[in-house]
Amino acid sequence: MGSSGAERAAERLLLAALCSVCQALQDGMLFPTESPSREVKDVSGLWIFRADESPERSRGFEQQWYKSPLAETGPVIDMPVPSSYNDITQDAQIRDFIGWVWYEKDVWVPARWIQDRGTRIVLRVGSAHYYSVLWVNGVKVTEHVGGHLPFEADISGVLRQTSGNQCRITIAVNNTLTLETLPPGTIQYMTDRSRYPAGYFVQNTNFDFFNYAGIHRPVLLYTTPKAHIDDITVETTFSDNIGLVSFNVSVLGSSKAAVKVTLSAQDGRCVASADGSRGVLKVTDVNLWWPYLMHENPAYLYSMEVQATAEDGQTDVYTLPVGIRTVKVTSTQFLINNKPFYFHGVNKHEDADIRGKGFDWPLVVKDFNLMKWMGANSFRTSHYPYAEEILQMADRHGIVIIDECPGVGIKDIRSFGNVSLAHHLTFMEELVRRDKNHPSVVMWSVANEPASEMPPAGFYFKELVSHTRSLDSSRPVTYITASNYARDLGAPYVDVICVNSYFSWYQDPGHTELIGLQLNTQFDNWYGKYQKPIIQSEYGADAVPGLHSDPPMMFTEEYQKTVLQNYHNVFDQKRKEFVIGELIWNFADFMTSQSIIRVVGNKKGIFTRQRQPKAGAFLLRERYWRIANETGVRMDCLSSGSALYTCGRNTDLFLTL
């Protein structure tokens, strides 16, 4: 991979993809669901895979591997989808591979889909990291820049141009990070020939998690009528017992489609309906969407059915879950449904053994059970958007989400340039477009720990926050900072101050007696300057499971617990004033790149990577349930000892403290 050639090629690909994405953003990105007019076929599973190990990583394009079956181009291996490819094999070169990898799968498309020319056939990739090009039967159908978000293409024409029902899907994925990508990175070429062979390079990053790559979420084929519902936007509010649901429906393929919208309660009763693509539904005796532990009936979801009937009588049907709730920020509070909400939750990662960042339902359900067991009511999607299925789970269980884009590791001044800003703005457009209708999402986060003291940061974040607000005025906007309060140039533009600090860990390691003074000073400084509510968005300490010491020493479970206790003492003082939340770093141990400060990954989890609790998990469980009892719904069903708590229709049974 020659330095100048690779960098120029990456820049050209990024600019071309940005142009194509800007065009694509005119369309919606509804989650594929089945209905009387729509079918979904999951084509995930076992694919074949080949890494392009040529020096320039370009042989696959030069030899047009997409033109013929991948197995004919050279050696291939099996690769599960969804998963990261890094930990699937025993090959360290695959684990650490940077560059283009190729996936392929042959699938059968139902004959009726192809024969009915009134049917649209769409191929959708839930996410692939980082840059992707997609072919069907050797024909390029789309490309996408950015991991963690879906992309799709109408492949009806391609399939109908070829004989038979077979569909060969080829996806090339490149995980190279540059100064203009999100997250950014640099390729460093080692030129000392006494130490490195010719062409040797490494991928440098400024974030502390493993750069997992591959096709991370399901690959789907789905159908719609030619005249179809392309997008739905919902915003909600209420007054007394009346709920209001504003809707905007976009229909493509018909200029005169008749649209009907029906809102139903959980028992199937129609509670409101309207004709037309825009309007407001009025719901009497509304059931609001409440967070977990804030109400005896949390996470109430209505069902909104949208029907669009074209001039030829063909009807498309799409059903969207709707939670009616409001979000508001004051100088000292975060209000959900006009009631103060205190974030007592976690930061997470999409990360697990073997599968890496690959979507996995058992892991998702286990994580939600653990969060509810410990009394967590919220989490941040650190440091990138999570799978849509995770947000749907949060909607159903009342877990509140701070939805974050992958703006992590923006440390180089060159990453504040116009190309980076354009990509960042586009990414926020894609993120808002995907997640705007989730009631669990209460705030957008546009970055994590950027170098916000650098001179270009003020303009960069002013534009970024302003643009995000223009996309969605119903939610506050923030970013997570670790900068000095007096020199942070982006903080004036956010609605909520989110601060990361690791007193007695990265600062004054071993000295837990300093946490109280330093944390109090931190909070007073930030609030004194900005008069905005504050969330402690990260805090914690590494704990190697099973490592013990008394008195506590760093890396032991006792030390992690002591750090948490000292932070909690200050939180309990400041949450009476202007601190509105605390999110532990991290929910579970996770993989990182290899370094002398990481022993097979980051150990700041309160659970191990295998989801087993450390001592800190029990400490947080006791704390979070105590806070819930102080600030949430009156829990008459909660008693001491081993009583079972069953509050709300979505809540599993848990032993209380």
From TrEMBL:
<dbReference type="InterPro" id="IPR023232">
    <property type="entry name" value="Glyco_hydro_2_AS"/>
</dbReference>
<dbReference type="GO" id="GO:0005615">
    <property type="term" value="C:extracellular space"/>
</dbReference>
<keyword id="KW-0378">Hydrolase</keyword>
<dbReference type="Pfam" id="PF00703">
    <property type="entry name" value="Glyco_hydro_2"/>
</dbReference>
<comment type="function">
    <text>Plays an important role in the degradation of dermatan and keratan sulfates.</text>
</comment>
<dbReference type="InterPro" id="IPR006101">
    <property type="entry name" value="Glyco_hydro_2"/>
</dbReference>
<comment type="subunit">
    <text>Homotetramer.</text>
</comment>
<feature type="domain" description="Glycoside hydrolase family 2 immunoglobulin-like beta-sandwich">
    <location>
        <begin position="227"/>
        <end position="325"/>
    </location>
</feature>
<protein>
    <recommendedName>
        <fullName>Beta-glucuronidase</fullName>
        <ecNumber>3.2.1.31</ecNumber>
    </recommendedName>
</protein>
<keyword id="KW-0458">Lysosome</keyword>
<dbReference type="Pfam" id="PF02836">
    <property type="entry name" value="Glyco_hydro_2_C"/>
</dbReference>
<dbReference type="GO" id="GO:0019391">
    <property type="term" value="P:glucuronoside catabolic process"/>
</dbReference>
<keyword id="KW-0325">Glycoprotein</keyword>
<comment type="similarity">
    <text>Belongs to the glycosyl hydrolase 2 family.</text>
</comment>
<dbReference type="GO" id="GO:0005975">
    <property type="term" value="P:carbohydrate metabolic process"/>
</dbReference>
<dbReference type="InterPro" id="IPR023230">
    <property type="entry name" value="Glyco_hydro_2_CS"/>
</dbReference>
<keyword id="KW-0732">Signal</keyword>
<dbReference type="InterPro" id="IPR017853">
    <property type="entry name" value="GH"/>
</dbReference>
<dbReference type="InterPro" id="IPR006104">
    <property type="entry name" value="Glyco_hydro_2_N"/>
</dbReference>
<keyword id="KW-0326">Glycosidase</keyword>
<dbReference type="Pfam" id="PF02837">
    <property type="entry name" value="Glyco_hydro_2_N"/>
</dbReference>
<dbReference type="InterPro" id="IPR036156">
    <property type="entry name" value="Beta-gal/glucu_dom_sf"/>
</dbReference>
<dbReference type="InterPro" id="IPR006103">
    <property type="entry name" value="Glyco_hydro_2_cat"/>
</dbReference>
<feature type="signal peptide">
    <location>
        <begin position="1"/>
        <end position="24"/>
    </location>
</feature>
<dbReference type="InterPro" id="IPR008979">
    <property type="entry name" value="Galactose-bd-like_sf"/>
</dbReference>
<feature type="domain" description="Glycosyl hydrolases family 2 sugar binding">
    <location>
        <begin position="41"/>
        <end position="225"/>
    </location>
</feature>
<dbReference type="InterPro" id="IPR006102">
    <property type="entry name" value="Ig-like_GH2"/>
</dbReference>
<dbReference type="GO" id="GO:0005764">
    <property type="term" value="C:lysosome"/>
</dbReference>
<dbReference type="GO" id="GO:0030246">
    <property type="term" value="F:carbohydrate binding"/>
</dbReference>
<dbReference type="InterPro" id="IPR013783">
    <property type="entry name" value="Ig-like_fold"/>
</dbReference>
<feature type="domain" description="Glycoside hydrolase family 2 catalytic">
    <location>
        <begin position="327"/>
        <end position="628"/>
    </location>
</feature>
<dbReference type="GO" id="GO:0004566">
    <property type="term" value="F:beta-glucuronidase activity"/>
</dbReference>
